[in-house]
Backbone:
């Protein structure tokens, strides 16, 4: 019969060993779920079942296992970095997208009309780009907070968008290089990529409906 | 992969939203799994099995294309 302390130590030892393996089962499950968060379900609570030499008929051991369950559950939460405290909402994505669009327009206008030094002009140009980087970071965090189907849709949407926009951008580039004068430049490729992302997302969304 | 998720859900008189909440996933994910357009991950499949208190193979059935020929 194992004491409470021993059984908890056993469970922690098993957990530690599983984490030290190159591909422990938990990580395979995580991989299958597409990473931490979303529907990556904490299956590791069932680990104590595999703990060896525990007399399950003993009430004391059962009680200690119950305590161990909760301890292990807490331990797993720590191991995974804990639940995402600040999950990114749809609203925050729209707000930052609006801010990016506004800053993009304002910066473009200011760079046209303002006659200031080069450093100041560069700083103006960096404002919308910084916001865009922030938006991309938020978008990643948003995607990580989604369940596995939505993650799949987002990823497939990105793949479709990439497949559409890359040849299109190269086509535009070669046409310009060939000497054709077009009313848009390479920077406009960014807008095209955003449109392509919407198209890709719509295609992927329909696939799973 | 075939599954009996819709049947099991109907037996318990749950809506897709109810099931989604129980599983901690979106309703869209439940729809995709029920329509067999998406095969759930192992953790999610185990969670579904645990929720309905059935073995996983009773809910999900793998059909190899070559077996049907």
Residues:
């Amino acid at each position: 019969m194992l004491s409470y302390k021993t059984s908890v130590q056993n469970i922690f030892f098993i957990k530690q060993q599983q984490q030290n393996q190159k591909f422990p089962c938990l990580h395979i499950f995580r991989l299958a779920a597409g990473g931490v968060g979303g529907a990556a379900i904490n299956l590791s609570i069932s680990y104590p079942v595999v703990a060896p030499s525990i007399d399950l008929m003993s009430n004391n051991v059962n009680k200690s296992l119950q305590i161990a369950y909760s301890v292990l559950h807490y331990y797993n939460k720590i191991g995974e970095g804990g639940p995402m405290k600040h999950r990114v909402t749809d609203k925050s994505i729209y707000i930052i997208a609006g801010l990016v669009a506004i800053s993009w327009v304002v910066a473009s206008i200011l760079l046209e009309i303002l006659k200031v030094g080069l450093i100041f002009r560069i700083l103006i140009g960096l404002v919308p780009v910084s916001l865009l980087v922030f938006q991309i970071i938020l978008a990643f965090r948003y995607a990580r907070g989604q369940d596995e189907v939505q993650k799949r849709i987002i990823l497939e949407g990105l793949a479709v968008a990439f497949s559409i926009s890359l040849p299109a951008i190269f086509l535009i580039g070669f046409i310009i290089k060939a000497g054709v004068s077009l009313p848009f430049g390479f920077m406009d490729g960014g807008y095209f990529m955003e449109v392509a992302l919407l198209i890709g997302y719509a295609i992927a969304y329909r696939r799973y409906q | 992969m075939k599954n009996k998720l819709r049947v099991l859900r109907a037996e318990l008189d749950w809506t897709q939203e109810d099931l989604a909440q129980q599983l901690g996933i979106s309703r869209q994910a439940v729809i995709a799994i029920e329509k067999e357009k998406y095969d759930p991950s192992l953790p999610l499949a185990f969670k579904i099995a645990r929720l309905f208190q059935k073995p996983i193979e009773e809910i999900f059935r793998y059909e190899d294309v070559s077996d049907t020929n």
